[in-house]
Hints:
The chain is of the alpha/beta class. It has four domains: 11-155, Rossmann fold; 178-411, Rossmann fold (3-Layer(aba) Sandwich); 421-503, ANL, C-terminal domain (GMP Synthetase, Chain A, domain 3, 2-Layer Sandwich), CATH 3.30.300; 524-603, ACP-like (Non-ribosomal Peptide Synthetase Peptidyl Carrier Protein, Chain A, Orthogonal Bundle). Helix content is 30%, strand content 22%. It contains 17 helices and 26 strands. Helix 14 crosses helix 17 (584-603). The chain is globular and about 70 Å long.
Amino acid sequence: MPSPQWNNTFYEHPQDKLIAALVSEQARRTPDGIALSSDSVSLSYGELESRAAALACDLQGLGVGPETLVALCLERSPEMVVAALAALKAGGAYVPMDPDYPASRLQFMLADAGPRVLITQSQIAGRISAGDCRILFLDQMPAGLRGRTPEPVSLGLDNRAYVIYTSGSTGRPKAVQITYRGLLNLVHWHRRAFDITAEDRASQVASFGFDAAVWELWPYLTAGASVHFPDDATRGSAKNLRDWMLQERITVSFVPTAMAESLIGLDWPRQAQLRLLLTGADTLRHYPTSRLPFRLINNYGPTECTVVATSGEVSFDDRPDRRPSIGRPIDNVQTYILDENRQAVSAGVTGELYLGGAGLARGYLNRPEQDAESFVQNPFSDAPGERLYRTGDLGRYLPDGQIAFVGRVDDQIKIRGFRIEPNEIVAALDQYPGVLASAVVARADNGGEKRLIAYVVGSGVRVTRDALQEHLRSRLPDYMVPTAFVQLDSLPMNSSGKLDRAALPAPTALNSIGDHTYTAPRTAVEEQVVGILGELLALERVGVDDNFFFLGGHSLLGTQLIARVRNTFGVELSLRTVFDAPTAAELSAEIERLLAREQQISAD
């Protein structure tokens, strides 16, 4: 049986000061120290404190106090941190909303959460209607009103600190309510476990609507460290991100699993300042090599457990015959691997992973039926009210107490660090005229990269891939839009009347739903480019008007595309070019332009 010592994680952290107070203390200690830095903005701790305090006064004037929700729809930037800190200073809880989400999804979040105030920027506000919610434009805040101090508020560990949306199994996003108890435990564990000091320089890479952004901010800002923001083009490329980390002298960074696997495959100078590369959100498949100058830490944790529940270093000399583990529970968190009767299984036996302790969310916002299903009584504790969270993940204890991640109990999917409920995609897909039924699964291509595949049963009305993707992109984030659509006469069912996922066919040129028209390559360059795209995306046929990103491409594959073009044609495309000219025809035209320019230079 698992050793009881494996859950002996108690560590007494300070709980007398909440996040806003800890940041204020740091601002008094080092007012001139850099807190936040990007290409366009640099804020000292004194400036962060002053701006957040003034905005907190405005929020309190609009009725924000304990338990009040403040929605934040802002680009990744130091300003978004000012707004989040202001919400905490006012006594409220912030609700991060990624402005890249479709307008309909943002609209649903606002209607569902019912925040008292929405903080946004002028260029974003036109995409959403706030309804009864008051709007504050962060870019229009007058500088002359700074220097004010918000009224003190009485908050406890069980008050909400933030509320964050995650993909919902019912077809609707659901909001997770995180308390100060969980947030403080995360912050203090992180600072202790990784020896965070004011000398550290951390990166902020995750999208604001992803809970990892919480982890990238508060442990550092309460310790006096500085947080640095790469631009979007940089954070999407492993090579560019490595170069930026070296230039900015980053010492601690979190990146999603796919990016981490790319980073550890690059060459790093021994004098690199980076000492810790933290990763998580998907299954880590590779080990680091001995030549890397930093430690790789693999982390695991659902949104419902305040970002991180387990953590462990992945060493280059670990066993190569199994995937890296997800480590052990962090301070004041307990892990249980249970069978279908919620009885503990023996070490080495696979079961469902349950989590307990300080990190547990209060529950879902406005979802009492899902609370009852996901948060259950803890049978291993005599303390009244103690709960466990059913993760739906399968795991097993290794002999040393670390946990091996096995997979999902249900069909939930994780792709490039994002947790996806297929039913949410199905609900949107079934709204398209002519779609009678659908299913969505993840399949690995020849390179092991997982992609979303949609299976569609039609009513006889002709549909195209472009139209289906456009329909979904208006309702879902890009990472939830399938890259291939397969036409079926009916969905396969098993003997229990449930969808038989194993019987769903792999996409082929014969069963896949195509575009309105297929345009074959017309030049030798186009022929080579569509061949490169087909190999990268594991597709049998690519037309010259097909969009790289619509076919399943993303920033990491974009860097591979650039490398293939370099090796084939001897010219260098930028990642920005791939974004601006994503079709095979446009890329070919740019390659031909670069080739012609080089020929001209040679002739001169």
